[in-house]
Structures are given as structure tokens and as C-alpha cells.
Design brief:
The relative contact order is 0.28. The protein is built from three helices and five strands. The chain is globular, with a radius of gyration of 12 Å. With 83 residues, the protein is of the alpha+beta class. It starts with a strand and ends in a 6-residue tail after the last strand. The chain has helices spanning 7-13, 29-37, 41-46, and strands at 2-5, 17-19, 54-57, 60-62, 73-77. A hairpin with a 2-residue loop joins β3 (54-57) and β4. Strands 2-1-5-3-4 form a five-stranded mixed β-sheet. The chain is 27% helix and 23% strand.
């Protein structure tokens, strides 16, 4: 599965995208965010407040309870700011 990171998430993690093989127990967006936080200090820092992270599964915005299913791409975005 391809993971894509945008804005300051990309900067904190240090990459724009990566291919990962998810463990079988990762079934929802919330599971994915929790798993990513365990992958290193840069991920833990970037995902310090996972509830604020916006997610798209195959280019469709998704809730954190959303099942990942057979997604080919998941994108992570920081919350919107500005005016």
C-alpha cells in the first residue's frame, strides 16, 4: 500500500510517500495511525495528535473509524488552517 504525506507531516516524517506492507491487525484508519506512531521518533512526532490528522483513502476523505479494506493509497494531511 502506498502512504502519502502532505505539508508538515511530510516535513516531520522526512518523506513524501512510501510503500508499506501493513500487519493483518491494521483494519481501520485509527489502527493505521497508531501503528505508524510506533515506526520511529519522526512518526511519533508527526502523529502526536492523531485526532487532528485528516485522511483520504484512494482519494476519498475518510473518518478515522473507516475500514482500510483493499485500499491502494492512503494520504495523510494536517488540519486546515488559515482564512
Amino acid at each position: 500500500m502506498k502512504l502519502r504525506y502532505f505539508a508538515w507531516l511530510r516535513e516531520r516524517i522526512g518523506k513524501a510517500e512510501e510503500e508499506v506492507a501493513l500487519p493483518a491487525e491494521i483494519v481501520s484508519v485509527a489502527d493505521l495511525l497508531a501503528w505508524l506512531k510506533t515506526r520511529g521518533e519522526e512518526y511519533a512526532h508527526a502523529l502526536e495528535h492523531p485526532q487532528a490528522i485528516r485522511v483520504a483513502i484512494d482519494q476519498e476523505h475518510a473518518d478515522h473509524a473507516e475500514p482500510i479494506g483493499a485500499a491502494s493509497e492512503i494520504a495523510l494531511f494536517p488540519p486546515r488552517t488559515g482564512g
